[in-house]
Specification:
With 217 residues, the protein is an alpha+beta fold. The chain is 40% helix and 15% strand. It has six helices and seven strands, in the order βββββαααβαααβ. The chain has a three-stranded antiparallel beta sheet. It has a two-stranded antiparallel ribbon with strand order 1-2. The two termini are 56 Å apart. About 13% of the residues have low confidence.
């Protein structure tokens, strides 16, 4: 099968267009060399402009590869609304763990005060400051680092942004602060956990977050 090729004279640079067919003999008067099979070598020719002897390039214009249609990307299953019962159970587990951590912090602060102040009472300011820090930072710390508290991990829940992405540290702190407002309104801010179609509470809407369960099958 003849393939149309474009060559250039190595002497004068004149472009030469021709058909390359290894099985054919050279044109008459081309002075081609003898091939291995005894016939003329069709690759030998002369420049029509300057008469310089040429050897046609053996490279052939490659055929365009067939188009490959990429397989459709796998679509992640939608996130499910977190069941209220699981959220309540996770909150109970976290409350217990946070209480234990606060108790340890209080004992540690009291012991430090006794050592530093030579017999200060256990109800020292340092102990209570540590208790407040532990209780206030328990949830935001786990939300920002892992997207879930230990209780949420046990019940298969996760905190994400309204767009479904992991929450940042700022958003985790904002949600923790907004929980104070939900609790201050006689707890009405928490009712969205079972009344809202998406399960979002007041502090979820204020911070732009949502609590979701395992992906739907």
């Amino acid at each position: 099968m003849a393939v149309r090729q474009l060559h250039y004279c190595t002497h004068c640079g004149t472009p030469i267009v021709g058909n390359h067919n290894p099985g054919a003999t050279a044109d008459r008067g081309s002075g081609g060399n003898m091939g291995r099979d005894g016939g003329r070598d069709a690759r030998v020719n002369f420049c029509p402009s300057c008469g310089h002897r040429l050897y046609r390039a053996t490279a052939v214009i490659p055929r365009r590869p067939p188009l490959r249609v990429a397989a459709p990307a796998a679509v992640a299953p939608p996130l499910a609304k977190a069941p209220f019962e699981r959220r309540l159970a996770a909150a109970g587990v976290d409350l217990l763990l946070a209480g234990v951590a606060a108790l340890v912090a209080w004992a540690l602060g009291a012991e430090i005060s006794v050592i530093v102040n030579a017999g200060a009472p256990h109800g020292s300011m340092l102990a209570w400051v540590l208790v407040v820090l532990v209780l206030a930072g328990y949830q935001p710390l786990f939300w920002a680092r892992a997207g879930r508290t230990p209780g949420m991990q046990l019940l298969g829940l996760r905190l994400v942004s309204a767009e479904g992405t992991p929450v940042s540290a700022g958003r985790a702190l904002a949600r923790a602060g907004a929980m104070v407002l939900s609790a201050a309104a006689v707890g009405l801010g928490f009712t969205g956990a079972w009344r809202d179609p998406s399960g979002r509470t007041w502090h979820d809407r204020l911070a732009g977050t949502a609590v979701v369960g395992p992906p739907q099958p």
